[in-house]
Amino acid sequence: MTANTYKQKRGVGFYIGRILAYALLIGFGFIIIFPFIYMMMTSFKSSTDVFRYPPKVLPYTQATATFQGRELPAYSFTIDGRERTLVNTGERVQVASLTAPENINVDEPRQSKIDVAVPLEEARETGETITLQDGSGADEEFPLYEVTVDGQTLTLPLAFRGAQNIFVDPNDESVRVVAAERTAEKQEFVQFQTSNYNAFTSLNLNRALVNTALVTFLVVAGQLITSLFGGYAFSRVQFKGRDTLFLAYLGSIMIPFVVLIIPMYRLMVVLDWQNKLVSLILPWIFTAYGTFLMRQFFISIPKEIEEAAMLDGASRFRILWQLFVPLSTPAIATLAIFSFLYAWNSFLWPLISINQGNEMNHVMTLALIKLRNIAADRPNIVLTGAAIAILPPMIVFILAQRYFIEGISGSAVKG
């Protein structure tokens, strides 16, 4: 069967299945990435925008308009079928909330469905009342008021009274509306508040970012160097007890970290490394996992390449750095990514080794604890710190992910 014939025999069901599969994958992908998107957008929001309900993904800022030389918040109102921009003057007046008797919630009057809300001075009290029963059967009296609406005089009971704001058209002060600010429609536009990232610097947390970058770089470099030398020695150098030593070294992976915490901490105290950045670097530049990864990759490299280099007089050091390292780019990149993620996100050991009061030696994971306490009432600032902490690992992973799928064939040697 030719390729064209096969394509012709694929029916509509095949393409529907493909569409559904892609839609499902896209849907799950969006669900997974949405918390990250919301975190990034929140880091650009103002403190008031964070607590808005219902919440919005994009950061919004309320528009303003000039009224009597002042910049005041702008709101949208529909007046006589026309949408107009009004500003909140800050003045408040007593408002009578009137409604039909059947719309009054006797138990919770403020939950009643209001038909008319006018300034109290524009409503005239008739001196009469109506009596309604609450849920327990008790009588409640509500005064009756007369109010003029669209030229028609209505007599309605007062459900409740309260203070509301006066809104004025900045271009025509005769246009006035009395309404509750919390229910008025705000005029907003999308604006990214980059000042949140300046606040992160003003809290002296940039030192923690520098410390994290330094510790991560030295740990990754140390693990790469020790793993390359260890992997080459265990895979290519013949010496007595090599396999036994390798098994013992590999077996250290099975020891839980919680078992090592106390001995390692005591060792840091003896060496006077406690509360210093060196305690976050030197104990972690040796990794049995990295040595195992490089050994397994070096074993897959044909011995003929190494033998040809040795016949040409190359030393083992030169063979390692000029032959094995270039051929092992995918494995090195994989180890570098794992080491980077571990060193950057390390929390438990820095929490134990570095005192909370020593802010000069804090790393990002410890700084985020401080930030959470300082800015507990400002989630946008806290999520700004989280965004700064998560962006470098994400960028590194995106740039280096292709090495996960590359093999030794990508660096094949032509004869």
The fraction of residues assigned to DSSP E strands is: 15-25%
Rg over CA atoms, rounded to whole Å, is 35 Å
Q: Uncertain spans, ≥5 residues at pLDDT below 50?
A: 407-415
| Tertiary shape | elongated
Descriptive notes:
- By secondary structure, the chain is of the alpha+beta class.
- 47% of the residues lie in helices and 22% in strands.
- The protein contains 14 helices and eleven strands.
- Strands 2, 3, 4, 5, 6, 7, 8, 9 and 10 form a nine-stranded antiparallel beta sheet that branches.
- α5 crosses α8, α11 packs antiparallel against α14 and α13 runs antiparallel to α14.
- The longest helix has 31 residues.
- It is elongated and about 110 Å long.
Helix and strand arrangement:
Elements: H1 3-9, H2 12-42, H3 47-50, E1 60-62, E2 64-67, E3 70-79, E4 82-98, E5 116-119, E6 124-133, E7 139-149, E8 152-169, E9 172-179, E10 185-186, E11 188-190, H4 195-202, H5 206-236, H6 242-251, H7 257-270, H8 288-299, H9 303-311, H10 316-327, H11 329-345, H12 348-353, H13 364-374, H14 379-400
Antiparallel strand pairs: 1-11, 2-3, 3-4, 3-10, 4-5, 4-8, 6-7, 7-8, 8-9
Helix pairs in contact: 4-14, 5-8, 5-11, 11-14, 13-14
